[in-house]
Amino acid sequence: MKRLSFIFGSMCLAMTQANAELIINGSTTSTVTPVQNSSASNQSYSSNNNFQNCIANLRSQAVASGVSGDTYDRYTQNLTPDYSVIDKLNYQPEFSKPIWDYMSGLVDQERVDKGREKIAQYRDVLNRVQAAYGVPAETVVAVWGVESNFGDISGKYPLLQALGTLSCEGRRQSYFRSEFFATMRILQRGDLTVDQLKGSWAGAFGHTQFMPSTYERLAVDFDGDGRRDLVSSVPDALASTANFLKKGGWQTGMPWGFEVKIPAGASVAGESRRNKKPLSSWVNRGFTRVDGTPIIQGNLSDSISAGLMMPAGANGPAFLVFKNFDAIYGYNAAESYALAIAHLSDRLQGKGEFVTPWPTDDAGTSRAERREIQNYLLKKGYDIGDADGLIGDKTRQAIQQEQMKLGLKATGRAGQQILSVLRNQNAGQIMQ
Ligand SMILES: [Ca+2]
User: Fold this and answer.
1) Is the dihedral of CA 300, 302, 305, 308 positive or negative?
2) Based on the domain organization, do 105 and 182 belong to the same domain?
3) Within this chain, do residues 182 and 306 fall inside the same structural domain, yes or no?
4) Distance 236 CA to ligand 1 centre (A)
5) Per-residue pLDDT tens over the stretch 344-388
6) Nearest 5°: phi and psi at 309?
7) Are 321 and 273 in contact (CB under 8 A)?
8) Which residues form the Transglycosylase SLT domain (predicted)?
9) Dist. CA 117 → ligand 1 center (Å)
10) Which of 17, 273, 313, 394 could be stapled to 307 by a disulfide with Cβ–Cβ 3.0 to 4.6 Å?
């Protein structure tokens, strides 16, 4: 597993959009109890003095892990804590997020178009990556697109400061300490500089948002300059992602999965991604692909195993997923996240959207539509910051207020319903 999401398990459906973007930046935090606000939580933090003591006390552990004493002293000498990362660690979303909101923001036409541009731009590199690791270009580029929006959003937290703080405060200090030490070993090796090592608050960095320990294990030098550089070398980043998937069990030439039709009356209780069964058993139970064609096609055979994944229950889209889905899942340990990458890779190959609609009367919106909603809210005078397409708590509260005015259910969701109302109101105003 690439990063710390195992701490929080499969909680990502409870995340706000702001937090979904944090996934892209390599971190997830969400649990279900109310958050303490940052001014209150700051009072419980240790003083800077305690931080310096803590860092000094970690020196022997760092040295035991392979960091030289000189390296440790050099990089901790002027290190100061940044307690905002503890607020991020403790952040609890106020709103829950259904999977259709999650998917519609991560896999929208904008990301498909940009992904196709990147595939064209890096065609030669991707061909060589595919030849070396057996992972298709579209899958590698889909990871890149979901992780950092193709390198646009890779995080701004200085890694040593963020990981140093997380090593001395808050939950999971031992986990963050090993990442803190790994960061110093990377610097010691000379692959990257301190200035390059900026990332998410939790320490994931570069185009493909590897944690430092993952970088040590799996990053590769693919452009041949002798350095493994996930920050400024796209070829290194793409090949490292392919290497991650290959080491995670990727099977060349096999699909991640596909959407299926659940036969009428079939019992699907207990079925899951993990509960894999031979394809013959799904065929015998009457399952077909969603377009009605047989499950077994191409290089698939009876004995290959797949699990039935129903991310929104039996009334939403259902998928048979193979080992390659698990390899993608290893990237962030959330089924919705893996499905976003899998679906984006299909879209990049020219396949269409899911056939079965999500079980909702208020479908999700693309990032372009979210920006449109935010622009209407700004026009109405709501203080929601920039129209950046990221639906944070402020945007959600503004949507809630509008929904209450309209007598709609105050979900705070940036869905198609509120978009359509705001669009009509705006058109009306322009007419007057
Ligand atoms: Ca390199």
Assistant:
1) positive
2) yes
3) no
4) 5
5) 999 999 999 999 999 999 999 999 999 999 999 999 999 999 999
6) -110, 125
7) yes
8) 51-346
9) 23
10) 273
Q: What is the pTM of this model?
A: 0.88
pLDDT surpassing 70 at residue 3: no
Residues with C-beta atoms within 5 A of ion ligand 1: 221, 223, 225, 227, 229, 233, 236
What 3-state class would DSSP assign to 269?
coil
Are residues 164 and 264 part of one domain?
no
CATH assignment at residue 227? 1.10.8.350
Whether 93 and 28 have beta carbons less than 8 Å apart is answered as no
For residue 76, report the distance from its CA to the centre of ligand 1, in Å.
27
| Same domain, residue pair 231 and 276 | no
Q: Return the beta strands (E) in 288-416 as ranges.
A: 288-289, 305-309, 318-321
CA of 152 to the centre of ligand 1 (A): 20
Distance 167 CA to ligand 1 centre (A): 29
Structural domain for 315, as ranges: 257-320
Quote the ligand 1 centre to 148 CA distance (angstroms): 19
**DSSP bridge pairs for 278:** 305
User: Is there a single domain that holds both residue 22 and residue 140?
Assistant: yes
pLDDT at 15: 33
Give distance in angstroms: CA of 161 to centre of ligand 1.
25
User: Separation of 245 CA from ligand 1 center, angstroms?
Assistant: 19
Residue 334 Cα to ligand 1 midpoint, Å, equals 30
Answer yes or no: do 208 and 152 share one domain. yes
Residue given tokens 């240790």 in the structure block: 46
Does residue 67 share a domain with residue 36?
Answer: yes
Other CB atoms within a 10 A radius of the CB of residue 128 amount to 16
Å from CA of 237 to ligand 1 middle? 9
Give 289's strand partners.
Answer: 260
User: Which of 47-56, 122-131, 287-296, 404-413 shows the lowest mean pLDDT across its residues?
Assistant: 47-56
Q: How many residues does the chain have?
A: 432
Ligand 1 centroid to 219 CA: how many Å?
A: 10
Q: Is the pLDDT of residue 69 over 90?
A: yes
* Model pLDDT, residue 154: 87
